[in-house]
């Protein structure tokens, strides 16, 4: 079985290709030259091609001969990187819509039997995410008001798959995944950013954005990969759409405390309410995932942070 993974050098992609190779699959990893490095794919016995998926010819080349395509390629990153101003919002929208449209159109042209499309919690109404305790089931899309350009692109990607009647598909709506191979530089999301600061402390100040009372539902990447592979088996038309996330809620303050404890350092955290914090709350309702594919996350936050810390420590020390 030829399995194509777009965004293979990215965070979730790098973990996914390792899981697929362990299954003995023939894997083609597709990634963009703009990412700058394939270090996350070093040492893997697989085909790797570079393609600018914003160009249709490149997308055609990327998915040719595929039996299944995991489409993960996207412009992703921190709050500032994706939502810092109108221009970055526009870039996220245009870049991601272009990639999704080209890859999905190429899948139709090549008659790819099965597609797994990585969607996001960002498709849910952003105004509902401003209240603590906000929960989202798969049907809670109205009023249609996704989170910025990134969220709109993901919702449009889902819409395209809903029209691809000759293809079976699955759409995991991913809530806040973290773990090894995540970006930990200036575009890092909250977990790798805090872990990096702890490892570099006191060379880098341990600053936590916001007052610490905003909440997140954090899923270790191995649980995410397990869900995606289960969803692949249950792909269908109309598409199978499931929330994939951890229903356990944690405040950013508590997350920071767990990171500090993992570091075994005497770290003094400083909270900065002037920094952007993103949504206050977005809790995944995962009862459909339990019912449809028998999945629920099993990795505790403490265990996941420990694994992430030790992985990053080797890179930064």
How much of the residues is beta strand, in percent? 15-25%
Helix fraction, binned, reads: 25-40%
CATH topology of the largest domain: Rossmann fold
Mind telling me the CATH class of the largest domain?
Alpha Beta
* pLDDT averaged over residues: 92
Counting helices, strands and paired strands, the structural category is alpha/beta
Query: First CA to last CA: what distance?
Result: 40 Å
* Shape, per Cα inertia axes: globular
Tally of DSSP helical segments: 10
Return the string of H and E elements.
EHEEHEHHEEEHEEHEEEHEEHEEHH
Fourth-level CATH superfamily of the largest domain = NAD(P)-binding Rossmann-like Domain
Unreliable residue stretches: none
CATH architecture field of the largest domain = 3-Layer(aba) Sandwich
Write down how many β-strands occur, each being a DSSP E stretch of 2 or more residues.
16
Q: Count structural domains.
A: 2
Rg, nearest Å? 19 Å
Q: If you had to describe this structure to a student in words, what would you say it looks like?
A:
With 317 residues, the chain is an alpha/beta fold. It has 2 domains: 2-179 and 219-247 and 283-298, 3-Layer(aba) Sandwich (Rossmann fold), CATH 3.40.50.720; 190-215 and 249-279 and 305-316, Alpha-Beta Complex (UDP-galactose 4-epimerase, domain 1), CATH 3.90.25. 38% of the residues lie in helices and 17% in strands. It has 10 helices and 16 strands. The chain has helices spanning 11-22, 56-63, 79-83, 86-109, 148-161, 190-200, 221-233, 252-263, 287-293, 301-316; strands at residues 2-6, 26-31, 47-50, 68-71, 114-117, 119-120, 135-136, 168-174, 177-178, 207-209, 215-216, 219-220, 240-244, 250-251, 270-272, 283-284. Helix 1 (11-22) links the parallel strand 1 (2-6) and strand 2 (26-31). Helix 4 (86-109) packs parallel to helix 5 (148-161), helix 6 (190-200) packs parallel to helix 8 (252-263) and helix 8 (252-263) crosses helix 10 (301-316).
